[in-house]
Amino acid sequence: MHVIQIGSLSISLKWLLLGVGILIVLFFIKFWVKKTYEGELHKKVFDLLVNTLILGFFIWKGSLIVLEPSIVMNSPLSLLYFTGGSKGLILAMIGSIIYFILKGRKINIPNPLIKKILAVTALSGLIGWTMYDFATSIEKTVKEGESKLKSSVEIGIKEGNKAPDFQLKNIEGQNVRLSDFKGKKVILNLWATWCPPCKAEMPHMKDFYQKQKGKDVEIVAVNLTTSEKNPESVEQFVKDYGLTFPVLLDENGEIGDVYQAITIPTSYFIDTNGIIHERIVGPMDKEMMTDLINSMN
């Protein structure tokens, strides 16, 4: 599983492991310094590490402004829900290292200790990333093997089920079936115009879709029209956000019920055979979409 679901919040497994790893390293360094050095040095080091982590987190969040200015301008809510992703993490690491070195020297932490802490942190990060990469590659191999062994698949909305087919009208009034996209990797997204995380997600979805052109990847955005105060606002929303992927209208609420879109946005990643690979509740950024799409057949 590449994503951990916590209520209506979806967190990439790599970021969750990163956070856990940082906490483990933080307390390991505190214990090591306390046992190795005398006096109050361990308290200085621990406080500096905590401040460095806080600074790094804000750099990571704020890096979205630098890396994706157009997305932030179109949807300022992106700053609330998303970070700068892997590229932003690099900026956060550079800023944190510079701060740690300069501040450490200012409060008289010995240079050899600063170097050792940075080395231990870097080594821990490398080991953690290698383990994550190895685990995800094994998971992908296992899932591919399981899919080959299955001769028939149950229709349903759980991972490994065949996605229930349906037919809805798009905003142009044409009938569109989910099965029309068989042979493509599909993100089935259930959303509404009044939903703040849906608004934050849409610019990411738009950019992701444009970059996936010619790669047999499709986004099918099903608007939960029965929840809209003004159904006519859907077409205006699509124009305002410049969406080019299919937008379908669930005017009777049936598809929202079938796919259990209780909390929105809710998205299903469906592979080329129509099998559900992952269910995500909550907004996604481009990096999460790309990781999940690349992990599918």
TrEMBL record:
One of its GO terms (molecular function) is antioxidant activity. PANTHER family: THIOL:DISULFIDE INTERCHANGE PROTEIN DSBE, THIOREDOXIN-LIKE PROTEIN YNEN. It comes from the Bacteria. Residues 157-297 form the Thioredoxin domain. InterPro entries: AhpC/TSA, Thioredoxin-like_sf, Thioredoxin_CS, Thioredoxin_domain, Thioredoxin_ResA/DsbE_sf. This is Redoxin domain-containing protein. Keywords: Disulfide bond, Membrane, Transmembrane, Transmembrane helix. The keyword Transmembrane helix applies.
